[in-house]
């Protein structure tokens, strides 16, 4: 049981770190331009230097929603990690980690909303570069989506022994 708890804890910490990286780094879309490799994230457009991400007025609200839900997912994941640690020491024997699992599933839902909106609104837009493909931050966000769902379900099923 201790090995299972340690494993879940390590995967949870890895998920939090990957969420930080995928939100902060600017490599959601990568392509090439006349100036070389160019990458766009949630915040900046980077070539050799980074500038503010130019977004059309009709896509600006969508980008702000993606930014907000990615930040919310980080917050909920950290709250779930703190709740897990607190419940690990204060929860009675035989009880389940319901609160931790519920908060982690809210984190999962935030990631789902953010990445789905980004996929729907920004994937096909190649205004600034050609040969566009998804960068590692986009892939990390989907990996965090899977991990947070698995962790959330495991927390709901897990009993303290």
From TrEMBL:
Q: Indicate the principal place this protein occupies in or around the cell.
A: membrane
Where it sits in the cell: the answer is: Membrane
Q: What topology does it adopt in the membrane?
A: Multi-pass membrane protein
| Annotated GO CC locations | plasma membrane
Q: Which UniProt keywords apply?
A: Glycoprotein, Membrane, Transmembrane, Transmembrane helix
Q: Which InterPro entries match?
A: PMP-22/EMP/MP20-like (IPR050579), PMP22/EMP/MP20/Claudin (IPR004031), PMP22_EMP_MP20 (IPR004032)
Q: Does the keyword Cell membrane apply?
A: no
Q: Does the keyword Transmembrane helix apply?
A: yes
Q: Give the transmembrane ranges.
A: 7-29, 65-85, 97-118, 138-158
Q: Which family does it belong to?
A: Belongs to the PMP-22/EMP/MP20 family.
Listed name of the protein: Epithelial membrane protein 1
| Originating gene | Emp1
């Amino acid at each position: 049981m201790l090995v299972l708890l340690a494993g879940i804890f390590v995967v949870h910490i890895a998920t939090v770190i990957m969420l930080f990286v995928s939100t902060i780094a600017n490599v959601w879309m990568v392509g090439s331009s006349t100036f070389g490799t160019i990458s766009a994230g949630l915040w900046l457009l980077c070539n050799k230097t980074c500038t503010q991400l130019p977004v059309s007025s009709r896509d600006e609200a969508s980008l702000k929603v993606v930014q907000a839900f990615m930040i919310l997912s980080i917050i909920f994941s950290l709250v779930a990690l703190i709740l897990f640690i607190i419940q690990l020491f204060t929860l009675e024997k035989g009880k389940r980690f319901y609160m931790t699992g519920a908060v982690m599933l809210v984190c999962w839902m935030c990631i789902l909303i953010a990445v789905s909106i980004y996929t729907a609104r920004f994937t096909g837009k190649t205004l600034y570069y050609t040969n566009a493909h998804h960068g590692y931050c986009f892939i990390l966000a989907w990996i965090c989506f899977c991990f947070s769902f698995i962790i959330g379900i495991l927390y709901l099923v897990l009993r303290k022994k």
